[in-house]
Fold these 2 entries.
Entry 1:
Amino acid sequence: MEAVSCRNCCNRFFNKKLGVVISGSINSNDYGSDNVEAVWKKDDFDNVYIEEQDIRKYDVKRVRRSVSAALDYKINEKNRLTANMMYNWRDDLENRYRWRATNIEPEYDAADNITGFTGDIRRETKGGIDNSRNEKRRLEEQRVQNYSLRGDHLVGNKMNIDWSVAYSKASEYRPNERYIEYETEGVSFAPAFGDSRYPLVAATTAPQTSAFALRTISENTDNTSEDELGMRLNFRIPFSVINDQKGRLRFGARLRLKSKDRNNNFNEYSPLGAGFDDLSQASTVNWSGAKWNPDSKYTPGTFASNTFLGQLALNNPALFESESVPDEFLSLNYHANETIVAGYVRWDQSFTDKLSMILGARVENTSLKYSGNIIQDEENLEGSREIKNNYVNVLPGVTFRYNVNNDFVLRAAATTSLARPNYYNLSPFVSTLLDDTEISAGNPDLKASYAWNYDLMGEYYFRSVGLLSGGVFYKNINNFVYT
């Protein structure tokens, strides 16, 4: 079910010098999905079997809200100001009911033939706290806002200047995300899984609800946010070295200040009173598999209800004992600051009526400051680590265009480009497992991947409609980031 509302308003004021456009929209969509997944394994006798299978039911409510405004003010014929504002707010509320057959092991006869399987079955409910925001579902709240101011100016009759200042903020917040899981062990499964395209791990005797013992109750809150302030200044003047041919010189500078934080936590809870021994003691829901996609034979079954999970008073010490699980979040949390200062120059030159060129270069200085956690045995916080890094990139490029005729264009280019590592790869966390002699760590010394790109392309424009284009390219990447 989907509900949509959208409104727009625009007009010009003050003798049409000021233009205003305001728009807003809201979209609410309730939907669901069915999901079946399997992990296959081969034994020592080349028998292929399912080691783990999931049957999942999702109920999702997604609400999107957006408000934006654009203003432009024409000071005079040579000066104009533009302002833009945007605010987006997205709520994704989800319940998931997951049936899982896991730890599946074959049973063999004396001739090493598989006669059946044994394993465990788990039933997990994913939801959230029962309040007006979470609505007993996992809430993922995403907010993005952006504000910018730009000026365009003509100085004299030849120099164009434009500048801009922009601020943006984005966040993702997942409060009070809850899971409750029940498990029964040592279940016997049928020796055949049926159609390999639609396999099903089926118990020879379906376990009773009372056979499912409480395995885990957990709650986590994830919070990620980032801020960015950007400034640009650009100049453009006529500049041609060939008489009667067009030429322009552009140059400018850019500053970008960016910060990003991730602050997650994760706790497991043990009930101190009665009523949690097995699934039969919980308030439950049953999903029969009717109208299931891809097949109604995939029956999820009985689960603890989202209401039961959402109303658990997990923070009441008289009812539940709380224990932090550091290995779920310590290595993920970090703080990052990034500063980029850049300058460029670009020359556009026409040599003839058919041949033109764009030649330029950009210089970027990147400064990084990151902090991450030092962890031992996944759960012991030994301290934090702060690393600074700085590097400079020079990005030259040249492009040629040749108009064979009015319908046929050839292009050739040699350009450079950057691809920066993602923030988590740069996080200077260090996690050691002493008994296993293992270390995992981020790499704050990673530099941006630097690529040379060579392109040759042809375009043919048909007189009626459309075009036909084709080309070849070669790319050479340095400082390639991999794991």
Entry 2:
Amino acid sequence: MNSKVLIIIIVHNGAEYLGDCFSSLSKITYPKGNFKILVIDNGSNDSSVDHIKKNWTEITLIENRENLGFAQANNIGMQYGIKNNFDHVYLLNQDTVVEPNFLEEAVKLAESNPKIGAVQSKLLLYHNQGKINSIGNEIHFLGFAFAGGYQQPDFAMEPKDITYPAGASVLIKISALKDIGLFNSEFFMYHEDVDLGWRLWLMGYKVMLAPQSIVYHKYEFSRSIKKYYYMERNRYLTILQNYRFLTLLLISPACLIMDIAMFFYSF
């Protein structure tokens, strides 16, 4: 495969994950001269940066002085990919472990059709590898998003269209990014992948799952006020950006009812 791929990993206090992640990347089967790993540290205050500099000198490292958020940090990486004439970027979470052929399978599917803008790998739960983390994600018309197939037993499947890709493991064509733009940096974190997938479909691109491209995710479900704030705020930003005005008027009663219900449910 001759396509150049930039693997972008955003790191924030991820020292405990990096050994497993980078070790798995060192074994991938994609031609060595055709991919590059770019790590963007988002203001870590643990040993992440020291670990990378000491053990993984072949990795290109950009250090942000503060946490710019998942969206803006990835934008820095994607801008690097565009500037340096890569064909694709692959966004990979710090808490993942990849199968050796994950990248070539994603590239193979992406390049099988010029209308494919992004390809998600099959995400399996690392701590329960017989269970699915995501096989492509879904969007409710009110902007709520959820992982497709979450915690279901893994099963054989063919490539398929998906609504939007999980930002933890997705290959995006540079040509598509030039058409639709990068992440909305206002999102900071959460829902930026929802917005990206939505914009890809609106611009006529397909988003697909590559089931032979497998990534294991050390996913842990968590709740916090901060997470709830960003998910709700960004849910509204997503629908405001992507729906027409008349559609927003149509769904506004449902949004109001849902928000009232969620407010009382939170107590």
